[in-house]
Amino acid sequence: QVQLVESGGGLVQAGGSLRLSCAASRITFSIVAMGWYRQAPGNQRELVARITSGARTNYADSLKGRFTISRDNAKNTVSLQMNSLKPEDTAVYYCKAETIMGPDYWGQGTQVTVSS
């Protein structure tokens, strides 16, 4: 059974920081990219940040400079450092793993709540 286990969500005041982590296990296909997406109530799921196995990154334009994605290929983990958090960052954050010639996998989501 493939697993993507996320951790690090929680409640933080505006201006604070959180670090999300995601560990992938039991994925038999090679992972080419991992990323974070988020979904706020009433909104569609959107890309936050994505990083390839070659460390190429892309971010949602509105988040550049505040969020940083990193990855450990050997451990199949991806992290998201979130700084200067705003109430509008409140959402469920999902980890995603993209594989070569296989399906994409999603984590169960972790709640991030930023209070004003």
SSE order in H/E notation? EEEEEEEEEEE
Note the main sheet. Answer: 7 strands, mixed
Principal-axes shape call:
globular
Helical proportion? under 10%
Distance between the termini: 39 Å
Q: In short, what is this structure?
A:
By secondary structure, the chain is an all-beta fold. The protein has strands at residues 3-7, 10-13, 18-25, 31-39, 46-52, 57-59, 67-72, 77-82, 91-99, 105-106, 110-115.
Q: Keywords for this structure?
A:
4-stranded antiparallel beta sheet, mainly beta
How would you describe this structure to a colleague?
By secondary structure, this protein is an all-beta fold. It is built from no helices and eleven strands. The N and C termini lie far apart (39 Å). The protein is globular and about 45 Å long. Strands 2, 4, 5, 6, 9, 10 and 11 form a seven-stranded mixed β-sheet that branches. It has a four-stranded antiparallel β-sheet with strand order 1-3-8-7, with no helix packed on it.
Layout of helices and strands:
Elements: E1 3-7, E2 10-13, E3 18-25, E4 31-39, E5 46-52, E6 57-59, E7 67-72, E8 77-82, E9 91-99, E10 105-106, E11 110-115
